From TrEMBL:
Lineage: Eukaryota, Fungi, Dikarya, Basidiomycota, Agaricomycotina
Pfam families xref list: Aminotran_1_2
Domain of life the protein comes from: Eukaryota
Keyword line: Aminotransferase, Pyridoxal phosphate, Transferase
GO terms for MF: pyridoxal phosphate binding; transaminase activity
Keyword Transferase annotated: yes
Protein name per the record: Aminotransferase class I/classII large domain-containing protein
SUPFAM superfamilies (alphabetical): PLP-dependent transferases (SSF53383)
Organism: Antrodiella citrinella
Domain Aminotransferase class I/classII large: 70-437
Length: 480
């Protein structure tokens, strides 16, 4: 099997490029691709990783009705059912008449208070400056929070999503507001994909960077900045008056080796000095930590001024989070309840992580840098024979086995898609999610085993071709 050097030689990559928004942009001569203009004047935003992966899965027979036959290790969501020792899952919600009204665009006051209280208790005990409801804005999901933040930046501000790879929606959220410029940095394997504080300092100085955005813990690498380095990052923001937006959606998904540390979580809130002066903005919510992605109840925390600005952008962007579910969320933020949730979640997800890592190793897919947080495994396939050694082809081959993973290139922040995809630092990677229940994880690992066995026994001529054409129509979203 020929070892391809360029995406043009790969069937999986050709399919990817055919999708609206994935063809290289910005090449000369500048043309408008009519396929991308949905109706006159409205350009297609491009298919997101979520839509692309679900579209390709559906081309291979995936649907909600047939979902149980599939192993979805792509879905960026935790299992939502019962897990051992966790409080019972919410099953009913009250809908008082008042909740039929719009909620304020900053959210229900009692929920804002509950969020502030939880952060003060968890991260700020004994500190003079404490969060109040005025530091909290409830938003209809994490992405809505990010969009609200992105919507009101003045035109000259550089947003830096600091790490490549990082959460896929940053590319699109930032790209939707064209004034914002993501500045990608390289994937640093030697350094455990860690953030380079010295490089950040340089960029702040040389590029006049004013806002930094990063997920911590980090999707998709499963790494986390905590303790002194996190404190230093907060200090850097303070020293340089650079706003730091930390997406802390996986703040409970931490896996300490020592059992006694179970129940701890991480947040930059622990290192903020004055909650109204430090430009630290935290985005989190019920989506991952509370395992309630369908509720769409999340929050942005930061200085009071910021919250009133978020109220404005929310009023024209999304109109606020669901009112009855905000009321239903209040008891879920009770600190004792939260502690039970955290401990059961950490035990359960740690066991799943260890199980998947052990099985991958047996399959010859040892993970170079295992996740110490989140429920993602960033798997390097470089050592496999071509073409299984690239994430997009590995993804297509697993679809034939009713298994979904996410190709690494979706986590590359590559707004114009100009470069040869084979040169992406994420080209050789896939992201596996251990969010789903254990039985699904095993099903997916069995499928990987079958593909690798076939490669070993029958050679590589089976791979890299004969992919099903995409279907048009509605999609079952696979969240990335
Ligand atoms: C880092 C990160 N932030 C935010 C979100 C999304 O949050 P929501 O589904 O509430 O919009 C995700 C979901 O995948 C994520 O991985």
């Amino acid at each position: 099997m020929k070892n391809h050097k360029h995406e043009k030689e790969s069937e999986a990559h050709k399919i990817f490029r055919e999708k609206a928004g994935h063809n290289p942009r910005g090449l000369l001569p500048q043309t408008v691709n009519p396929d991308e203009e949905t109706v006159p004047g409205i350009i297609h935003p491009g298919s997101t990783g979520v839509i692309y992966c679900s579209d390709r899965a559906m081309a291979n027979g995936f649907s909600y009705a047939a979902a149980h036959e599939w192993a979805n290790l792509g879905q960026g969501a935790p299992e939502v059912g019962d897990i051992p020792d966790a409080p019972p899952r919410p099953q009913n919600i009250n809908i008082p008449v008042d909740s039929l009204e719009y909620a304020p665009t900053t959210g229900v006051k009692a929920l804002r208070e509950a969020v502030a209280n939880l952060y003060n208790l968890t991260y700020r005990e004994g500190k003079e400056s404490q969060y109040t409801y005025e530091n909290v804005c409830i938003v209809p999901g994490g992405r809505a929070g990010l969009s609200r933040l992105a919507a009101f930046r003045p035109p000259d501000v550089l947003f830096q999503s600091y790490q490549v790879p990082d959460y896929t929606a940053y590319d699109q959220v930032l790209g939707a507001f064209r004034r914002l410029v993501p500045v990608p940095t390289s994937l640093d394997v030697e350094n455990n994909y860690a953030m380079d504080l010295n490089q950040i300092k340089k960029d702040i100085k040389t590029q006049g960077l004013q806002v930094i955005l990063a997920s911590n813990p980090r999707n998709p690498t499963g790494q986390v900045i905590q303790g002194e380095p996190l404190k230093d990052l907060v200090q850097l923001s303070r020293d340089t008056t650079t706003t730091l937006i930390l997406d802390e959606f996986y703040s409970w998904y931490i896996y300490p080796e020592n059992e006694k540390e179970l129940g701890k979580s991480i947040s930059s809130a622990a290192y903020v000095e004055d909650v109204n002066k430090d430009s630290i903005v935290i985005v989190d919510g019920l989506t991952k930590n509370w395992r309630l992605p369908g509720w769409r109840v999340c929050w942005v925390m930061g200085p009071k001024n910021l919250i009133s600005a978020l109220s404005q952008s929310g009023s024209f962007l999304d109109g606020g989070a669901n009112h009855p579910l905000q009321l239903a969320a209040i008891p879920l933020l009770d600190p004792a309840h939260v502690q039970r949730e955290k401990i059961s979640l950490q035990k359960h997800f740690k066991a799943k992580r260890d199980h998947v890592l052990a099985r991958l190793e047996k399959l010859g897919l040892k993970v170079e840098i295992p996740p110490s947080a989140t429920f993602y495994i960033w798997l390097n396939l470089e050592h496999l024979p071509a073409p299984l050694n690239n994430g997009l082809t590995f993804f297509e081959e697993l679809l034939k086995e009713q298994t979904i993973v996410i190709p690494g290139i979706f986590f590359d922040i590559n707004p114009s898609h100009r470069r040869n995809l084979f040169n992406s630092p994420c080209h050789h990677f896939v992201r596996l999610s251990f969010g789903p229940p254990l039985a699904d994880l095993d099903k997916g690992l069995d499928a990987m085993g079958r593909v690798l066995k076939k490669a070993k026994k029958e050679g590589m001529h089976h791979f890299g071709h004969s992919y099903k054409p995409s279907l048009d129509g509605t999609h079952t979203p696979i969240n990335v």
